[in-house]
Amino acid sequence: MPKPKVSLKPFSDDEHFDASASLRKWRRLNGIKQEDLASRLGVSQSAVSFWENGRERPSANNIRKLKGLMAHTVRDELAIERLFVERQSGLRVLCDFDGIALVATSSGFKSLWPETAQLENRWAAHHLVDEARDFLLDEDHARSIRSGEIGLASAVSHRITDFQVDSAVKCRWHLCVRRYGYRTLLDVVFEPCGAEVETGITDIQYLG
Q1: HEC states along the chain?
Q2: CATH topology of domain 80-206
């Protein structure tokens, strides 16, 4: 099997903002009509419609405005999500797909992998190893995650990062792709498994 294509380029620039994948959902969740959003941005309602249908792409300036509006409404949602994850004794981590920056880690995760847990709010992509690296840094998978085509994935790994201080514990991990405004977050839970279980990416669920 050919080795997956990988890229260590950070995923945080405006070229990856997909209005058609995230704008409509954010607008409806927050009860904002196309006309109201268009008025806030100083554009026509048809322009917003074209963005959501993928017929046109917002300008760089409008992308920045959209991100600002989305970030304002997403902030409270993420604050609650962080608290929810941090209070859990199991192995769970929430991370931003842009650069694979850790957003929150459970108390169980911090206890087992304290060095990795220190990556909160820092890019972790270059620390990924084995199955986590092969899946998350593969260009085709990354594209499918951003477009919303991939919803779930599972794998078995000895390690997820290159920190040798942290314990190497064979785990089965399950990843769910979640969207908060324009942000794509990865919700990952880990289950320790027996030594006889083979490592590797075991399942990828495509939507639609």
Answers
A1: CCCCCECCCCCCCHHHCCHHHHHHHHHHHCCCCHHHHHHHHCCCHHHHHHHHHCCCCCCHHHHHHHHHHHHHHHHHHHHHHHHHHHCCCCEEEEEECHHHEEEEECHHHHHHCHHHHCCECCECHHHECHHHHHHHCEHHHHHHHHHCCEEEEEEEECCCECCCCCCCCCEEEEEEEEEECCEEEEEEEEEECCCCCCCEEEEEEECC
A2: Beta-Lactamase (3.30.450)
pLDDT band, very low/low/confident/very high, at 8 (cuts 50, 70, 90)? very low
Asked if pLDDT for residue 10 goes beyond 80, the answer is no
For the chain, what are the domain ranges? 80-206
- What is the per-residue pLDDT for 18? 75
Q: What is the pTM of this model?
A: 0.67
